[in-house]
Structures are given as structure tokens and as C-alpha cells.
Design a protein that fits this description.
- With about 800 residues, this protein is mainly beta.
- Among the domains are: about 110 residues; about 180 residues, no CATH class.
- The strands form 2 sheets. The protein has a 26-stranded antiparallel β-barrel.
- Strand 11 and strand 12 form a beta hairpin.
- Helix 2 packs across helix 5.
- The radius of gyration is 33 Å and the shape is globular.
- About 15% of the residues are buried.
């Protein structure tokens, strides 16, 4: 079946976004201002006003936070005379020479409903004397300080250089610390900014290091718009060491080569921020991943081995083109936010373990491309002092095309033998999500927040495949005989419908002295109908699966501080998820997985407490304890060969405990010390513990973090840090299974000195030591590393 035209989905989505914008324009309305009564104002001050002495402190302490150059509320600025006289979304607020006709004076006097400045809870209201000074300032012509600079140029640069020497597994060091051994350096951080006027600012910032780059450029003009662009790329390293099995003699297999992914993106955004107009943002982004990564799964070392210890790798060439459009505005007290995002995705990947398996090389090639468009609309409004509401809608559409090929080289990479091939795989998916939310102040100290969300998703998948069935399986290993391979074609089709409704409710009560109580609840009901079939007459496979689940996630807790030096908080959480399955096969497949599973239940209980003690201003300590227990139960039909006895069984359980203590110690103004210790024992068991392949997965994790800074004077300071972590999760199942789990110790130590030379120059030298020991890898992953780096930070002016 041919796939539908991919352009249809995203063109239709852009059309929906355009329709939403037209509806928004049709809803445009004006709000009439209240009548201003000068008789209610405090009288004007009779003194000669000095801006720096009388007015500037009022503006900086009360107004600039919301009405400064960065995203000013209502597009009204009070950091510049020209901008202040220009007004904002509510019109002209200051009329020189006439404070009685200037709306700003009435706002700060609290005489205009819903326009009190500063808003309730956002700052301290102006006193009568301050309002009188503002009136005098306006009546005297709104004089402004003339010594404020309008062209500020700032240059900051921090070059760095150093060397790291690694003894042992250098690839493991790179994977853990995200840096390459050897000589490294560049510019750790740089910033260039300039205000060519009170309204225009240019900024360039970023860093340039080996295999790690970032460049940001922005131009921002108040009351007009902005341009922001940039490019960044970093390298993620991987270790290609396989697993240790004492049963297999010889060295641990290695994937070979330098494994890493270069991950980056480039973007540009254009924004329009005209006063009294909706704010628009139009942008483009390009994301990519390129390189070869190490896979988590292991494969057999060779055809004579029963142990999966050889590493596998995957070569990636992944890219995404993104277009985005955003619109935000406020009309009649309703905040409107509409966002569209379209992604054009392309993936080319090649999975292989050709370097590790010797004679048998199994490979896979995958190509995947799709377009996904998502449009969201959100409305928010504060109706009054006790009720706040919001509503949202999301629509998503995806069209995807893919292909897949799995083949083996049978000892010769030049004579591949195809195992499975899917030349065409298509997927269509459409989703709708609606939500309503409310926040109510029912009584003094009592708030209630509620929400409901409904999701609906429909998917259709289709694939034509050829499976080559002449493989002979022995002990889980594949032997490829040198005979002609015949293909068994399949035409697979799958339809998927998902519906779920989620309700949330939260209560907060804070009228008990020094205490706050809360109760949260999340309920979810979900249904899924899935139909899978093979349209090929020779197979005739068809199966309907119906799934339903009920989820209840409940939480209750408190926080209290009965004494100034002590605070205590805690909560209890109960999570209950029950699922039921009904399989109706068109062509019965006896005891097929997962058709024999009838129901599943997941229960989690969580208890957490936190105690903070601060006996003195220079010492603080916090102790945290958390208990987490999860149980899994399953109902199944009886399955032969001991797979399942049928009925209700305890499928598994997880038990976790977390204990931690954090302390901060500042005995003098020159010395700062901080440290954290945590201990986490966990155990996971399953119903298959009688099988020697599966044993309980248990262990402990210890971690210590400590840091300190000591000042030798105004210009020199010493700093140090230490970290230690240990885990012992290596399982003793070598006699019957492949190795699972890990046992390791990781230690890092860093010391350094920083020295200030003059006003704008700081130099820093630091030494680092890292040690990693992993007994579960037979020392193959062990390393020790030492590094020395120097950094100079210079700022102008």
C-alpha cells in the first residue's frame, strides 16, 4: 500500500495555525479606563525634586524589576525618559507638567481597580510621601539624570590550556568525564556586548574548546523585536569494552576504533515585540548526530561461545530540520499562547558487531524519515483574587517512512547473506489533547487546584517484509548453511487506538502556625485497542488486543518550622496501577507471548522525610530519608514447560532506601566548607529466582561530595573538591547466565588557586586526579588520570 503524501499533514497543520490566528484577531477588544479623580490623590510635594536623590530610588526599588529593559510588563519602561514618556499597552502614563492627568500616579496610589502598582504580592506599595514626590517630579517636567551611559561596551574572555594524562582505559575516562585525554585548551567562555543606544543591544557569547563549541549571537531592540542565532556542537565519547565472563578464557573483546557522537544544532529566531501588538517568533533549527556509538546489548564472542560478552556498535547519521512559530498576547486579561513546531526527521543507522564476533558478523541497516507537526493553544486568565483558570489544546500529526535490512556475512564481509528485509515501513499517527485547569482560593490559607486532561491517539502502521527462514538454531546460536535461501514474504498491518483521561486535584492549607499541609491526587483511566495482522494468505495471522488500566497516584505531606533553627517536612505516596488484557486471536497461536498475560498490577509505596537544622547562621545541616517499595503481580493463563503456572503470581519487587546528609560550614568569612554523604541499598527480585540464570539484583551505592574555599586575602583564594562513589551490583550468576551488573569505585580530587591581578584580571591554576576501579570488568575498564589546567579571565571595562 503506498504511503500518503507527506506534505499534506504539515501544510494542513500550518493552515490550522493560520485559522487560529484569524480567530484570535477577531477576538480583539478594548478595555475602558476608570475615571480618574485628582481629589483622591495625595498633595504634590513642594520641594525642588532631584532625580538621583528623590526619584531614582523609588523606580529602582519598586518599578524597574517589572518595567526595565528586559521584557517590560505591558511594554512600559521606566529606565529611560524617552521610553517612559512613550507609554505602553495602556497608553500614555506620564504627562509632563500635569501629574493630575498622569495615569501612573493613580496606579501607584491604588485608585484603579486591577491596575494597582506594584501589584499585590509583587512589592511594597508607595508611601504618601513617595507619591507626593512623584507628583512634583511630573509637574516639574519629568527631569531625568543626564549622566547615565547610553553606549556600554563589555568584553569578557577566559582562555584556558592544560594537559590530561591517562594510564589505563582512556576510552572509559572519556566516556565518564566527557573530555579527551592529552593537550586541550581554547576559550572557556567569552562575551562581547554593546548598547548602541538605550533601546538596542548586541551580544556575542560562547566558548571554543577541543570538540566542544558554542556561539550565540543576538540583537535586541526594545519595542521592535530581536534576532537570535547560534551554533553549538559537543562530542560524547563511548567505551567499546565488552563484558567479563570467567567461563571464557582470553582477553575481553573490544569494539575497536574511537567511538563517539558529534551532537550539535544551529538555529535562528526572529521576534517581533511591537507595543500593543501580539509578540511573534519565527524560527528555524537544525539538529544532528553523527558518529559511532557503543550499544548496550552484548552479542556472542563467536559461534562456539554461549556467552554474550562482545560489544556491539551503531553508526548514526541523524538530522532534524525544525520550523517553529510562536504567538503570545493578552486580550481583556486573557493570556493567549499559540505555538507551532514542525520537524523533518532523517535517520540513517548501521548496527554491527563485526569487530567483535570473529567468524560471524551480523549487521543491520535502517533508514527512517518522518514529518511531525504539533500545534498548541493555551489560554489563561485571572478572573478575580480567588480564581485562576487555564485551558489548552494540542494537535499532532506524524507521517513516517522507513526501511530495514538485517544480514550476516558468514565469515566474509564481501558475501553478505540477507536474513530479514523490510523495504517499506509506513506509520501514520494523529493525536488530540485537551485540558482544563483551575486554581481556587476557597478560604484564607486554603487553596484548591484541579485539572482534567483527555488524550486521543490513533496510529496505522504498514510493512511489507521478507523473512528468510532457513536458519538452524542450536543453543541460541545461528548456523548459516551454504544453501540457497528462500524468502517467506509478509504484509504486516497494525492499527492502534489509545484514549486516556487524567484528573488531578491538590489541596494546600497554611493557616496552622509555622506549618503547611498538602494533599495531591492523580487519577487516570486508559484504554487501548490494537489490531495486528499479516495480510499474506499463507500466514493469515490476526490478533486483537484490548487493554484497560486504572491508575491512582495519591500523596499527602507537610512542612513545619516550629523553631527558627529547625524545619521538618515529609510526605507519603501510594501509587496503584491495575491493567487488564483481553486477546482475541483471529488465528490462535498457542501460548504465544504476550497473549497468555491477563492482568498486571503495580503497587508502589513511598515515604520521605527531611530535617534541616540551623543552630547558627554559619552552620546548616539537612538529613533526608526515603523508603521506596514496589511490587509487581501478574495474572496469566497456564503455559507449558514451566513458563507460568497460571493464576496470580508475584512477578517481582523492588526495594530501595536512600539516606543522605548535607552540611554547610562557614566558620569565618574566609572559609567555606560543604559536604554531602548518601547511602542507597536496593534489591530487585523476580518470580524466576529458582532459575540459576536469574539471581536477585542487589547492591549498595555510596557517594561523598565535598568542597571548600579559603581566602588568603582580597586577591588570592584556595579551593578544593573531592568526590567518591562506590557500587557493588555485580551478580554471581556466571555458572548459568551472562554477566549482569557492575561493581566499581570512582574517586576525583581537585585543588587549585585563584589570584586577582588588578580590577579586571583573574588567573586560576588547578590540578585534578581521577581514579576508576571496576572489578566486574576484570580491570579492563580501570584507569588513573591526572590533569593540570590554567585559566585567565579578563574583563573590559
Amino acid at each position: 500500500m503506498p504511503s500518503p503524501p507527506r506534505k499534506r499533514g504539515w501544510v494542513w497543520l500550518i493552515g490550522r495555525a493560520g485559522c487560529g490566528f484569524m480567530i484570535f484577531l477577531c477576538c480583539w477588544s478594548a478595555v475602558a479606563a476608570e475615571t480618574l479623580d485628582p481629589a483622591k490623590l495625595p498633595p504634590t510635594a513642594t520641594v525642588k525634586v532631584d532625580f538621583n536623590r528623590d526619584i531614582k530610588p523609588i523606580l529602582e526599588n519598586t518599578c524597574i524589576r517589572c518595567h526595565g529593559p528586559e521584557k517590560p510588563k505591558s511594554h512600559f519602561r521606566l529606565d529611560d525618559r524617552e521610553a517612559a514618556l512613550k507609554g505602553g499597552e495602556n497608553g500614555i502614563d506620564i504627562i509632563p507638567g500635569s501629574s493630575a492627568k498622569s495615569p501612573l500616579v493613580y496606579y501607584v496610589a491604588g485608585l484603579v481597580t486591577d491596575m494597582e502598582m506594584p501589584p499585590t504580592g509583587k512589592g511594597t506599595p508607595l508611601t504618601t510621601n513617595q507619591i507626593a514626590l512623584l507628583r512634583a517630579w511630573i509637574d516639574q517636567g519629568v527631569n531625568w539624570a543626564t549622566n547615565s551611559p547610553t553606549n556600554n561596551f563589555v568584553l569578557f574572555v577566559a582562555p584556558t590550556v592544560g594537559d590530561t594524562a591517562v594510564h589505563g582505559n582512556a576510552q572509559k575516562f572519556r566516556e565518564l568525564f566527557w573530555e579527551k585525554d592529552g593537550v586541550n585548551g581554547g576559550v572557556e567562555e567569552f562575551t562581547i556586548s554593546s548598547n548602541t543606544s538605550a533601546n538596542t543591544k548586541y551580544t556575542i557569547s560562547g566558548h571554543v574548546l577541543e570538540d566542544d563549541y558554542k556561539l550565540n549571537l543576538s540583537v535586541n531592540r526594545t519595542d521592535l523585536g530581536f534576532i537570535r542565532s547560534g551554533w553549538e556542537q559537543y562530542r560524547k565519547y563511548y567505551d567499546g569494552t565488552g563484558g567479563l565472563s570467567p567461563v571464557i578464557k582470553g582477553p575481553i573483546p573490544q569494539a575497536g576504533g574511537d567511538l563517539y557522537l558529534d551532537i550539535g544544532k544551529a538555529w535562528v529566531d526572529f521576534g517581533l515585540t511591537l507595543p500593543n501588538w501580539p509578540q511573534f517568533v519565527l524560527g528555524y533549527e537544525y539538529d544532528y548526530k553523527r558518529g559511532t556509538e557503543s550499544e548496550l546489548d552484548w552479542t556472542a564472542v563467536s559461534s562456539s561461545s554461549l556467552r554474550n560478552t562482545a560489544p556491539a556498535t551503531q553508526k548514526l547519521d541523524e538530522s532534524v530540520h525544525v520550523i517553529k512559530f510562536e504567538l503570545t498576547h493578552e486580550v481583556g486579561g486573557v493570556a493567549i499562547d499559540d505555538r507551532f513546531r514542525g520537524e523533518f526527521y532523517d535517520l540513517k543507522s548501521a548496527y554491527t558487531n563485526i569487530d567483535a564476533r570473529g567468524a560471524d558478523h551480523e549487521n543491520a541497516r535502517e533508514n527512517d524519515s518522518y514529518f511531525q507537526g504539533v500545534n498548541t493553544l493555551r489560554l489563561e486568565k485571572k478572573f478575580n483574587d480567588w480564581f485562576y483558570g487555564s485551558a489548552g489544546y494540542l494537535y499532532s500529526k506524524l507521517n513516517s517512512d522507513a526501511s530495514f535490512m538485517d544480514f550476516a556475512s558468514n565469515g566474509s564481509p564481501h558475501s553478505p547473506v540477507i536474513l530479514d528485509i523490510a523495504p517499506q515501513v509506513t506509520l501514520e499517527r494523529e493525536s488530540h489533547i485537551f485540558n482544563l485547569n483551575g486554581l481556587l482560593g476557597l478560604f484564607p490559607g486554603l487553596t484548591l487546584s484541579t485539572g482534567v486532561q483527555e488524550e486521543w491517539t490513533r496510529e496505522h502502521g504498514f510493512s511489507g517484509t521478507n523473512t528468510f527462514l532457513n536458519r538452524v538454531y542450536t543453543n541460541g546460536l545461528i548456523t548459516l548453511p551454504p544453501i540457497t535461501i528462500a524468502a517467506v514474504p509478509s504484509i504486516l498491518s497494525s492499527d492502534y487506538d489509545q484514549n486516556n483521561i487524567t484528573e488531578t486535584v491538590a489541596l494546600r492549607y497554611s493557616k496552622i502556625p509555622f506549618t503547611s499541609l498538602f494533599v495531591d491526587a492523580r487519577l487516570q483511566q486508559e484504554t487501548i485497542a490494537q489490531y495486528d495482522s499479516d495480510l499474506q494468505p499463507a500466514s493469515g495471522f490476526a490478533q486483537n488486543t484490548y487493554f484497560s488500566s486504572q491508575l491512582a497516584d495519591l500523596r499527602a505531606g507537610f512542612s513545619t518550622s516550629p523553631w527558627r533553627s529547625v524545619s521538618l517536612s515529609g510526605h507519603y505516596r501510594h501509587y496503584d496501577n491495575s491493567s487488564h488484557y483481553n486477546n482475541d486471536p483471529g488465528m490462535p497461536l498457542p501460548q504465544s507471548y504476550p497473549g497468555f498475560i491477563l492482568a498486571r498490577k503495580l503497587l508502589t509505596d513511598e515515604l520521605e522525610g527531611k530535617l534541616t537544622w540551623r543552630p547558627r547562621s554559619w552552620f546548616t545541616s539537612t538529613v533526608t530519608c526515603q523508603y521506596l517499595d514496589t511490587h509487581y503481580t501478574t495474572d496469566t493463563d497456564p503455559v507449558a514447560h514451566g513458563i507460568s503456572p497460571g493464576g496470580n503470581i508475584l512477578a517481582g519487587k523492588d526495594i530501595s532506601r536512600i539516606y543522605s546528609i548535607n552540611s554547610t560550614f562557614i566558620p569565618t568569612s574566609r572559609l567555606y566548607l560543604s559536604g554531602t554523604f548518601s547511602y542507597q541499598p536496593t534489591v530487585s527480585t523476580s518470580a524466576a529466582n529458582s532459575v540459576p540464570t536469574f539471581v536477585p539484583y542487589r547492591g549498595d551505592v555510596y557517594s561523598v561530595l565535598a568542597s571548600g574555599v579559603y581566602s588568603l586575602g582580597d586577591k588570592t583564594s584556595l579551593f578544593a573538591n573531592f568526590s567518591f562513589s562506590e557500587a557493588d551490583y555485580a551478580q554471581n550468576n556466571f555458572t548459568a547466565g551472562m554477566p549482569v551488573g557492575i561493581e566499581y569505585q570512582l574517586k576525583t580530587i581537585g585543588v587549585g588557586v585563584a589570584r586577582r591581578f588588578g580590577k579586571n584580571l583573574i588567573a586560576k591554576v588547578q590540578y585534578g586526579y581521577e581514579s576508576y576501579n571496576e572489578p566486574s570488568s576484570g580491570t579492563a575498564n580501570n584507569f588513573r588520570a591526572q590533569s593540570v589546567f590554567g585559566t585567565v579571565s579578563w574583563r573590559l571595562p
